[in-house]
Specification:
With 107 residues, chain A is α+β, with helices and mostly antiparallel strands. Chain A contains three helices and six strands; from the N terminus they run βββααββαβ. In chain A, strand 4 (56-61) and strand 5 form a beta hairpin. A ten-stranded mixed β-sheet of chain B has the order 13-14-10-9-1-2-3-8-4-20, with helices on both faces. In chain B, helix 5 packs across helix 6 (174-186) and helix 9 packs across helix 10 (394-410). The chains are: A alpha+beta (107), B alpha+beta (447).
């Protein structure tokens, strides 16, 4: 069954210079596996390639049932340089939760 | 929990413009030994330098006056030490002004420390390598305003040892503001890396204020937060091994849960195994969270390894003027008319005024924040055109405002609600310097 990521996870994004980080956590420990399988760097690149101009790295946090993504050159120069109203990229975390993910792992 | 062996530390501000009354509530009722006001970011530091350039007695946090007038009597009564980076680009002037306020309030004998030495313009030159955008400083073609190194707890501890009641710094790593009073209280060794890492985790969780107590978290229908309008600021009950319980006043709004703590733990973190500060390379990857009652979350298992040999430096440059102009369209075809208006402005700025630099065109209500990433359906019927550019002169900035305002009569049908703004702007880049070249300073002023 497919569902928006928002149904099973919450997220927060932050910035340092032109680099954005996005941490995504499963509400329920049982759904951590869905994050691991579905929310990959390749998937992020495919969905948001227009914004992610640099490297995307993923860190796994099994204790916290979360993933941390670090995205280089993702903020159009960063808060002091970008002409984007959201120069911090704060809205990232909400946008990513619209992504459709496959919830069941049986294939 | 043994009260004797617990240090209570709270947050008075999590960013430069943060609210005041949650800090005052914590001072009144939190029984805190220390309160930290964290008020400097890449953006605000650069603004501080801009302010100091126009008035050498300024350059500190614009809310310092208002905060100190309210905070000093309460902190004095509660025996709470205040640690803050509200000095921004001018900690000495901030300390002197704070002493003046203390004297006016009758707080005779109050000791205020200014921690200096973060401004290291002399270590930066045209050949300094910038980490982003990975070039030499001279290649930016911009005028440097100032360079500030991130100082660590070794810069703050002498002020605590001198028994300063209020410690005012410039650029210090945010978690260090919290770690310093903890390290002093528990006599932690500065090379006890796991404990430095644990204390840094506490500082990191507290440094953004309400972001760990339910602020920046609510999402109706998904993540509910009680009484967000009166969200409280956090405090931590820290024990000698660096583990802590994060909580808030029961009388305040918001919540502390494992979810709020998790989100904040990784906020602005890159590799969770190596969160670099001047004090330690902290490891948040094995952090363990446990519920410890209503609005109480226990945090332990943060660790750390040896601190880096180099310090990060933020270099601020004059960024010229940010010009922004907006006009709105509504009803059927609103998005098409807004898009047409944006195209007209772009064409005229290029062809009539000969301007070739980047200009951003946003359709607020259709796609403003992430236009390049997402294709939203352009069916919105309440759309605001926003044009923005960075100008090197007032005249160039005014040209954009004029062109957008002129759309009212000369542009597509039914445009209204023009507003234009010109804002002086700054830019910042990062570099590294050797720790040994950065020498912290301390001055004490007494009311």
């Amino acid at each position: 069954m497919k569902a928006p990521l928002r149904r099973i996870a919450h997220a927060r994004s932050g910035d340092k210079g032109n680099r954005s980080n996005l941490a995504i956590f499963a509400y329920e420990p049982a759904d951590y596996g869905v994050l691991l399988r579905e929310v990959t760097t390749a998937r992020l690149k495919a969905e948001f390639g227009g914004l992610l101009l640099g490297e995307v790295a993923r860190y796994e946090l099994p204790n916290l049932h979360g993933l941390n993504f670090v995205m280089d050159q993702a903020l159009e120069g960063g808060v002091n340089e970008s002409l984007n109203l959201d120069g911090h990229g704060k809205s990232w975390s909400a946008m990513i939760l619209a992504m459709e993910v496959e919830l069941s792992g049986d294939e | 929990m043994d009260k004797q062996n617990t240090f209570r530390i709270g947050t008075g501000a999590g960013f430069s413009s943060d609210r005041l009354e949650p800090a005052l509530d914590l001072l009144r009722h939190g029984k805190l030994q220390a309160m930290v006001f964290e008020c400097v970011g890449e953006r605000t530091l650069a603004f501080g330098h801009r302010d100091r350039r126009s008035d050498p007695t300024r350059g500190y946090n614009p809310l310092l006056e208002r905060r100190m007038r309210a905070v000093l009597p309460l902190a004095h009564a509660a025996g709470t030490r205040i640690v803050t980076n509200m000095g921004v680009a001018n900690p000495r002037a901030a300390a002197q002004h704070t002493v003046k306020i203390a004297s006016e309030l009758g707080l005779k004998g109050l000791k205020v420390a200014a921690v200096t030495g973060d401004e290291i313009n002399h270590l930066i030159g045209p050949d300094t390598h910038l980490m982003e955008p990975d070039c030499q400083l001279s290649e930016t073609g911009r005028e440097m305003l100032a360079a500030n190194a991130y100082l660590g707890i070794d810069a703050i501890l002498p002020a605590i040892e001198a028994e300063a009641d209020v410690i005012i710094t410039g650029r210090v790593a945010d978690p260090s503001l919290f770690l310093a009073p903890l390290a002093h209280h528990f006599s932690w060794q500065l090379d006890d890396w796991p404990t430095m890492g644990a204390g840094t985790a506490v500082g990191h969780l507290l440094e953004c204020g309400a972001q760990v107590t339910g602020g920046y978290f609510a999402d109706p229908g998904h993540k509910e937060v009680p009484d967000l309008a009166h969200v409280g600021f956090p405090l931590a009950e820290v024990t000698a091994d660096g583990s802590a319980t994060i909580t808030k006043l029961a009388s305040s709004g918001g919540l502390v849960s494992q979810r709020t703590v998790k989100e904040q733990l990784l906020y602005e973190v890159h590799d969770p195994n190596t969160y670099l500060t001047p004090d330690v390379s902290a490891d948040f990857s094995r952090v363990n969270l446990a519920d410890d009652g209503q609005d109480r979350v226990k945090v332990n298992q943060a660790g750390g390894t040896r601190r880096p040999d180099q310090l990060k430096v933020t270099i601020a440059f004059d960024g010229g003027l940010l010009a922004e102009a907006e006009v709105s369209y509504a009803g059927p075809g609103a998005a098409d008319r807004a898009r047409m208006a944006g195209d007209i402005v772009a064409e005229r700025m290029r062809d009539l005024h000969g301007r070739n630099g980047p200009m951003r065109v946003d359709l607020i209500g259709v796609s403003a924040l992430h236009a390049s990433a997402v294709d939203y359906p352009a069916t919105a019927e309440d759309v605001r055109l926003r044009c923005a550019l960075r100008a090197s002169s007032q005249a160039e900035a005014e040209l954009l405002l004029w062109e957008v305002e002129a759309l009212l009569c000369c542009g597509p049908a039914a445009g209204g609600g023009y507003r234009g703004h010109i804002t002086p702007s700054v830019m910042t880049y990062s570099a590294l310097v050797d720790r040994a070249d950065v020498v912290p300073g301390l001055e004490i002023f007494t009311a």
